[in-house]
Design brief:
The chain contains 9 helices and 21 strands. By secondary structure, the protein is an alpha+beta fold. The strands form 5 sheets. It has a 6-stranded antiparallel barrel with strand order 2-3-7-6-5-8. Strand 16 and strand 17 form a beta hairpin. Helix 2 crosses helix 3, helix 6 packs parallel to helix 7 and helix 8 packs antiparallel against helix 9. The structure holds zinc ion. Zinc ion binds next to helix 2.
Length: about 400
């Protein structure tokens, strides 16, 4: 004799019931858990989350299947005493959601079997969507959408869903979609003319109640195809999110929703082309800027010209281009810095006929910037987060060059 009679087995839509408390325990990590002689609460299992609701007004936050020992109702607030008669109420929107996802899974899984002989190996209801792992080798939009279309047709044909209890011998002669996971009498869920599978979950009365199924994405995972889908109210919520995203993007292009993808693709191409042109222009600008900087540079006693300058908001690549343009001129040493957001950047370089170890100078300068740097004797790069010391780092390096 089972401790708890499971009312959800015979009626998945029963949400109010009366029961007697047979045990009050704290064996769920110190929480108070109630065991009843009968319950409409579905405990977590088979890929389906458990129900929530109330027992005599106290919140039932979790439901756990304890096998032969019954169903544990974890309660927050006042707990009823042993032998008390309590009134239970299951949260219907959550139960309906689970019915839609779970029944939707039966239908979608059978669609993959019918069309592609591809059985489902596992199933999970997640926060906003669900997953099935299917033995499908070549997933593609057309393959997936054919299964989605068949599944939705079965939903809209509003077929009946019935429960059959059979012995293992009777089950052996039936075309079950999957092997039973348990011994003894089996509970089979039959979708009229479409699917027959052993299952202990909560299901719709008719397929129409599932509403619709949509696939969000798929990927190959561990030799299977992992398919993310939504059914019922989740499909509507997902449509709303997708539509909002698509409309927001379309608004940026001042166009209709369905015209946005090709305009976005166009913009990405234009952006690439602009970057190519900017790179060419940067090189031209660097050569012109190099001439200006050189003309104002002071020469040391040995005739070496030191160009020292700090820029605003130039990245390392830009500084390096300018440095290369400058050291194309003989007897030139370049000390360039940039304040790029919260980072100080440095590039030191010298012409082949100038002397000095840029790498050693860079390491010393970066100490001032709380950063790091290095490179070769003729070209070094570095930086740090102490942006306020950037001018000082450049001046100090210029002085140490003129002193040597
Ligand atoms: Zn099921």
């Amino acid at each position: 004799m089972m401790v708890t009679e499971r009312l959800y087995y015979s009626d998945s839509h029963l949400i109010e019931f009366e029961a007697r408390v047979v045990d009050v325990t704290d064996r769920v990590s110190g929480w108070t858990a109630i065991v009843l002689n009968r319950t409409a609460f579905y405990p977590t299992g088979g890929g389906q989350p458990g129900d929530t609701g109330t027992l005599n007004g106290s919140r039932v936050v979790e439901c756990i299947d304890d096998g032969e020992s019954g169903v544990l109702h974890v309660v927050q607030g006042a707990a009823p005493a042993r032998d008390a008669i309590v009134r239970g109420r299951v949260d219907w929107p959550r139960r309906l959601d689970h019915i839609q996802q779970h029944t939707g899974q039966h239908i979608l899984s059978q669609a993959f079997v019918t069309l592609f002989n591809a059985p489902t190996k596992s199933f999970r209801v997640m926060e906003t969507s669900c997953e099935i792992d299917v033995e499908l080798n070549n997933p593609g939009t057309e393959i997936i959408e054919r299964a989605v279309e068949l599944a939705n047709n079965v939903i809209w044909e509003d077929r009946s869903i019935t429960i059959r209890n059979v012995t293992p011998d009777e089950a052996a002669d039936l075309p079950l979609r999957k092997e039973p996971a348990r011994e003894g009498e089996l509970r089979l869920i039959e979708i009229e003319g479409f699917d027959l599978a052993p299952c202990g979950g909560t299901h719709a009365y008719r397929t129409g109640e599932v509403g619709m199924i949509a696939v969000r994405s798929w990927e190959r995972a561990k030799g299977l195809t992992r398919i993310e889908f939504v059914a019922g109210t989740r499909a509507l919520a997902d449509y709303r999110r997708a539509n909002r995203s698509a409309r927001e993007i379309a608004a940026m292009f001042s166009t209709g929703r369905d015209d946005a993808p090709h305009l976005a693709a166009q913009m990405v191409e234009e952006n690439k082309e602009l970057h190519r042109r900017i790179r060419v222009l940067e090189e031209v600008a660097a050569r012109v800027e190099a001439i200006e900087l050189l003309s104002s540079a002071k020469a040391n006693t040995d005739g070496t010209r030191v160009v020292a300058h700090v820029f605003e908001a130039r990245d390392a690549e830009c500084l390096k281009k300018l440095a290369l343009a400058l050291i194309a001129n003989p007897k030139t040493i370049v000390l360039l810095g940039s304040r790029d957001k919260d980072t100080a950047r440095l590039v030191f370089a010298r012409a082949a006929d100038a002397s000095g170890d840029m790498s050693a100078l860079m390491r010393d300068a970066c100490v001032l910037l709380d950063g790091r740097g290095g490179g070769k004797p003729d070209m070094a790069q570095g930086g740090g987060k102490n942006v306020t010391k950037l001018n000082e780092a450049i001046e100090w390096t210029a002085q140490s060059l003129s002193g040597s």
